[in-house]
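User: ok so my PI wants both of these folded by tonight, can you help

Assistant: No problem, let's get them done. Here's the first:
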Amino acid sequence: MNLFRDIEKQAIPYFSFYVFIFTAIAIFTSFINIYFQELGFSLGTIGIFTALGPMVSIISQPTWGVIGDRTNRRYVLMILLFAAALISLVIPLHSSFIFIVVTFLSYQVFATSQLPIGDSLTLQYLDGKSLKYSAIRISGSISFGAAAAFAGIILGGNTARIFYFNTFFLLLTLLFVFLMKPALKPRIGTNEDEVKEQSGLKAFLKLLDNKIVLYVYLSSFVFGLAMSFMHPFLGIHMTAIGATQTQIGIALSIAAFSEIPIFILIDRVFGKQKPEYLLMFSALFMAIRLLLLFFSNSVFLVYVAQMTHAFSFIIHLYFSILLLHKHSPPHMKATVQTVNSMVRMGLSALLGSLGGGFLAQQIGLQPVFLILSIFVFCTCFILPGIMIMAHKLKKA
């Protein structure tokens, strides 16, 4: 019983990390593009702003991951949170294109790596414990849903307030990261050559020989493409069909709250399934979700699409994180997670937000939803299915 109490007490900072980081994410990301639209920027220009995060994350996420693995992940995460909190206060000081590009780009340098490094710290803490990652991560889903639902009311029509709320919750997150139990640094080689051999580029490329790791990265790219267009432009799409800020917040909270039953049951229901089947399952629901948004000319249908969030994105994200943690060595866990985040939120998101924004400006938002639906269905459901069937027939 005392051991259980100690585990629960030590876990509080990890629960709190997800509560406050997802509150900040919900308020900031849900309304940032609406803020840009209110400043008078076009969809194409908003696509450029949205692409800044993916663009910088291609370099920043692997870099912060390597720094965290070679120094102290907790201290690195604290630096990222503090810097992002300060820069968030600067962004709304001017509305010129150049100023926003510079400040928003600087913000993304520190913001995009916070979650993957936080995940690596949480999973490292949970190693050898009965407490599951899903039990801690569910706190983020609850807080995101609550924050999204009330954000429209809290903002009171003043979208610029998102920056001040974002800073406040990032600093709260920083406080609980400070309270996390210091993790022991993984032991690797003692001389410079051994360190490079065991934690450098050569070691990472060798890790890609693992088909599961490679498969996770490839599917993350496709899912990142879809999510990087869908999430930033959902609020603009809903505004176009007559939704209020409160209704936009409700739509986002529906997606977040749909995660709760999944996180409660995910290990019991899906834990023993093969990862390739789970990724195909999530791809099918992602294609359905995008198709519903294509047909959505009412707020109700958007709500229905958001209900599929847990079966589409969360199942993929959850098992991606667990699989990468399982199949990576102790001295590369932050690197592997940040690279996955870079693939999902960097390479693919750059194309999804920038290319998607310009494409939406030419043909409209809803046709882009249809194109993405077909792409996800073909690449992550049909193609893997054909490969699995071919492999079974070959073995037969």
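One down. Here's the second:
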Amino acid sequence: MIALLNYINLSTAKATERAKEVAVRKTIGARPFQLIRQFLGESLFLMALAWLIAIGLVLTGIPLFNRALSTHLSLGDWGGWLFLACSFQ
């Protein structure tokens, strides 16, 4: 919850800088489609990067979690990978 509030706070603080950037790009002659493509591209890139980091952390953390709690969790079955693939969309 704290991370979510922190993200909202940082996004709000960056909004004024982004508004200035959009104004400058419009003045230079950027079309609305170019601005939409830029913002969607940045969002998709950050989402993919966060997803890859999360997958790496999960794959690294599962053995530690299994040892600490004496369990046997794995992503070796199709259900785990299917869940991860669906969560990306």
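Residues 41-89 form one domain. The helical segments are 2-28, 32-69, 78-88. Good luck tonight!
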